[in-house]
Amino acid sequence: MPQTSESQVAMTCREAMKARTFQCMGTVMSLTFPSGPAAEGHPSDDEIAAAAAVVERLFLDLDQTFSLYRPDSEASRLARGELALRNVSAGMRERYEEALDWRHRTEGAFTPERSDGVLDLSGLIKGHAIREAGTSLLALGRHDWCLNGGGDVLVTGSPKHGIDEPWQAGIVDPEDRGTLVAAYPLGAGRKHAALATSGSAERGDHIWGQPGAARAFIQVSVAAADIVTADVLATAIVAGGAPMLDRATDCWDISVLAVAADGQLLATPGFRR
Amino acid sequence: MKARGAVSAALASAGILLAGWQAGAQVAEIRRSVVATSAGTNAGTTSGGATSGPGSASSGSSDSAAAAESSGSSGAGAAAAGGGTYAGAAVQTRFGTVQVQITVKSGVITDVTALHLTDDDRKSVQISNRAAPLLRSEVLAAQSANVQTISGATVTSDGYLTSLQAAIDAANL
Q1: B145 and B104, same structural domain?
Q2: Which residue of B has its CA nearest to A198?
Q3: Alpha-carbon distance A186 to B19, whole Å?
Q4: How far is the alpha carbon of B166 from chain A, nearest alpha carbon, in Å?
């Protein structure tokens, strides 16, 4: 299946892990657990299958409601004007309120409205789905896992059961997606459990630059305690450039790695070796 | 002795106020308060200065006040001239290591500067967490063999097949 990078990551499987993947929201979600004997506290294959099924169901349900690629979704009916905002479901209203709150907190750098005025919550909904999936996994009693939603990562615990080591998340080099530009530790007592990356040429281009703002960064990665904060701020910094980057690092407890258009890296101290 | 007392108190209160600043107070407020404190001290005791900061409730602040006070006293020879720049000791607060420097002109504090701030305890992010240019060799190591997951701008389902994440997943299926 993968051809370019297998050798590069061959070493990775020295830590025994089990991964399950599924397609949703136009990309692929990966759910990874440390694996080993059930007697040592590792999840059984059945438990992994059950956890993956719960997560997949949750993603599919949210996609049914919020996808603008599905003509029959609530979001599509809202976009076509068949449904008034005051008549939407509670779930739609909550996400809309959350998106407006983020627009306010980012001074407009993050916005739930497309340039044509259509409400598009896709910049928020994947992060929300990952957040909800994480809550479900914890409720299922799973305390070591990594959930990767198309490049946005939320973890808890460690990649090896019973060992207090963080997960290491690599960040793709936007100029060569087969290599990494940095790594960042998540989970296992570290202050950040989530890492999200946004690029200026993202699928669907759900990032819209603020008027007059040059696209200073081609890729921005944000580590935060929660996935929605990481995801929204990564999007906002790509859209809002250097002023939004400074505002984000001043106002939130985050680490940021930004790749400028000329390849120059900007990073907060948390990314320094 | 009067000037010496003023510097001691100012350094002490600056330490407190800097802690308050890290907790979210405005820089402008600090400067106003420090000047006011300094004036009050000229007329009275150093302890008066130690109570004026908006962030003075924490235990870290009182540690910082004590250390800065003693340091200010040791450098008081210059203060008698009525002007100059004075540095307090580097002290541990609950926000990290803090050291303040004050500039005095004609007995009035004209500037307060944070000389030494680290995020050792990862809480002083309000001040020291700005992103700065970095060489690729200076960022946290990025060996593919040492990571368990990959963050990147969203790829399509088709693009996933040739991605690093797909390679990691394939190794663990």
Answers
A1: no
A2: B153
A3: 29
A4: 6
How far apart are the CA of A176 and the nearest CA of chain B, in angstroms? 11
Nearest-Cα distance to chain A for B169, in Å, is 6
> With contacts defined as CB-CB under 8 Å, which chain B residues touch A3?
162
Q: How many CB atoms lie within 10 A of CB B109?
A: 23
> Over the stretch A215-245, which tens digit does the pLDDT of each residue have?
789 999 999 999 999 999 999 999 999 999 9
Nearest-angstrom CA–CA distance, B36 and B122 = 32
Same domain membership, residue B150 and residue B116? no
Angle between the A122-139 and A227-251 helix axes, to the nearest 10 degrees? Answer: 110
All residues of chain B having their beta carbon less than 8 Å from the beta carbon of residue A23 are 157
| B62 and B42 share one domain | yes
Low-confidence ranges of chain A (pLDDT < 50): 1-14, 202-206, 211-213
Looking at the structure, tell me whether residues B154 and B76 fall in a common domain. no
Q: Domain check: are B9 and B44 in the same one?
A: yes
Chain B contact probe: residue of A130, A180, A198, A245 with most B CBs at under 10 A: A180
Domain ranges of chain A: 14-271
pLDDT tens digit sequence for B123-162? 444 457 899 998 988 888 766 668 999 999 988 888 888 8
Interface predicted TM-score (ipTM): 0.87
For residue A160, give both structure tokens.
Answer: 């090896």
- φ, ψ dihedrals at A77, nearest 5°: -65, -35
pLDDT reading at B32 higher than 60 = no
pLDDT given for residue B5 in this prediction? 58
Cβ pairs A/B, distance under 8 A = 230
**Domain total for chain B?**
2
Closest in A148, A245, A270 to B165, CB measured: A148
Query: How high is the pLDDT of residue A71?
Result: 96
With an 8 Å Cβ cutoff, are B148 and A191 in contact? no
How many CA atoms within 13 Å lie on the side-chain side of A31? 24
**What stretches of B3-95 adopt beta strand conformation (E)?**
84-87, 91-93
Q: Which domain holds residue B66?
A: 2-128
| Domain identity same for B97 and B145 | no
Per residue in B53-71, pLDDT (tens digit) is: 343 333 434 444 434 443 4
| CATH architecture, range A14-271 | Roll (3.10)
Q: Please tell me whether residues B38 and B115 are part of one structural domain.
A: yes
Mean pLDDT value of segment B99-122 = 64
Same domain, B81 and B159: no
> In this complex, do B148 and A13 lie within 8 Å of one another by their Cβ atoms?
no
